[in-house]
Amino acid sequence: xxxxxxxxxxxxxxxxxxxxxxxxxxxxxxxxxxxxxxxxxxxxxxxxxxxxxxxxxxxxxxxxxxxxxxxxxxxxxxxxxxxxxxxxxxxxxxxxxxxxxxxxxxxxxxxxxxxxxxxxxxxxxxxxxxxxxxxxxxxxxxxxxxxxxxxxxxxxxxxxxxxxxxxxxxxxxxxxxxxxxxxxxxxxxxxxxxxxxxxxxxxxxxxxxxxxxxxxxxxxxxxxxxxxxxxxxxxxxxxxxxxxxxxxxxxxxxxxxxx
Amino acid sequence: xxxxxxxxxxxxxxxxxxxxxxxxxxxxxxxxxxxxxxxxxxxxxxxxxxxxxxxxxxxxxxxxxxxxxxxxxxxxxxxxxxxxxxxxxxxxxxxxxxxxxxxxxxxxxxxxxxxxxxxxxxxxxxxxxxxxxxxxxxxxxxxxxxxxxxxxxxxxxxxxxxxxxxxxxxxxxxxxxxxxxxxxxxxxxxxxxxxxxxxxxxxxxxxxxxxxxxxxxxxxxxxxxxxxxxxxxxxxxxxxxxxxxxxxxxxxxxxxxxx
Lengths: 259, 259
Prior knowledge:
2 copies of one chain form a homodimer.
Chain A: E1 14-20, H1 22-25, H2 34-44, E2 47-54, H3 58-71, E3 74-78, H4 89-96, E4 101-103, H5 105-115, H6 121-124, E5 128-130, E6 134-136, E7 145-148, E8 151-154, H7 158-176, E9 185-191, H8 195-208, E10 213-218, E11 227-233, H9 236-248, E12 257-258
Parallel strand pairs in A: 1-2, 1-3, 3-8
Antiparallel strand pairs in A: 4-5, 6-7, 7-8, 9-11, 9-12, 10-11
């Protein structure tokens, strides 16, 4: 336990999410996109550091986009990209980066082809993008995903948000290049001891493995265990060593299981 | 539609939530408390304006508690109140308000009575509070809920978080006093038109009812309707008028239903 830890891996690329929507803050709709994105970023080795949820207020969104895009390698917005009055994300991102809102000719053409004689001015609003935005597509997802520099504009509807994930993954893998292969890994031990009893054992493994994040989560109403102890990091061998050192420190009869 | 709107109600008391937890940002656990709190605050007339999710980093939490507690009438933290190394909320809130962390004698006595000879230093950490904190209890919830000035320290475990809600409601009702009776109300219309087609009708009702928040939410894969249009405000009669004006503007065959 006294051996010095290996040199740390390069600091992970970081990310933030800005969730835009009165409907989340009023409790009308349960937020469902952050967890999906978190689980997408983790194995890529991108550290999601911050999530902010704000109302459909353009000045607030402009300020958040500016701050979050500067402070993180990637920013993902969720929501506010439809055609109606409460969809202000494209305008807010444009203002945040000091560019104009323009209609994208290829997106406008796709909308006209899709809606044909039913196509309204409202539908055509879905072709608006910040001037200079990249339109990200893959072979499977033809409708473009809008990215301006490090800021992705993702839709709030969970089914549509999920359709964009392969596009994000493809682009991030490209940009991460050599840093790939350092995705986060996670292991866990499940014990019947409670957190109060575990504290000295946790303090010990935390001190011995500064490069491994140790978390403990009480479980209610589950007869098979009382606390889940998690071990997270970018070096699988170190994470497993931390878990096994913790397991070796437990009294007889523990753990209930590991994974 | 050209009558002027009634004088606006007093601006709602505002609230923010600070969710503390690596486990949410890593996607290991889905956040489940914000929607519960949002639905609790809404009928009380308290406007939830902002949610921030951060890692278990004490400096970050201190900064957020300072900013959010100043900018809103109420702040609710979720998570980080257990006995282990990653539970730093009590210390962070104490630092944010420049007070010491102290052990609460009544909470310590309750812990000793509960754990008896099994009681560890770890268990006793659950009696730590910011010096000067209020310990909120009700007849039904005997274990105190910690509040420091306008900042509530709520637990992250969803089952325990929910147990605290009646305590929050009782205290907020007390403090709101005369402002009660102005809780937010919500009505909706469900239509088969899409957002692009609805845009001019929505713009019209938005312009005519500046005191009613109008939202539109596309529904995927539901044959009974395509868009849910919501009407929210603090004056039930105005909210219903807005919904009915919108419904009257729809073409034949719409809406599919209202609520």
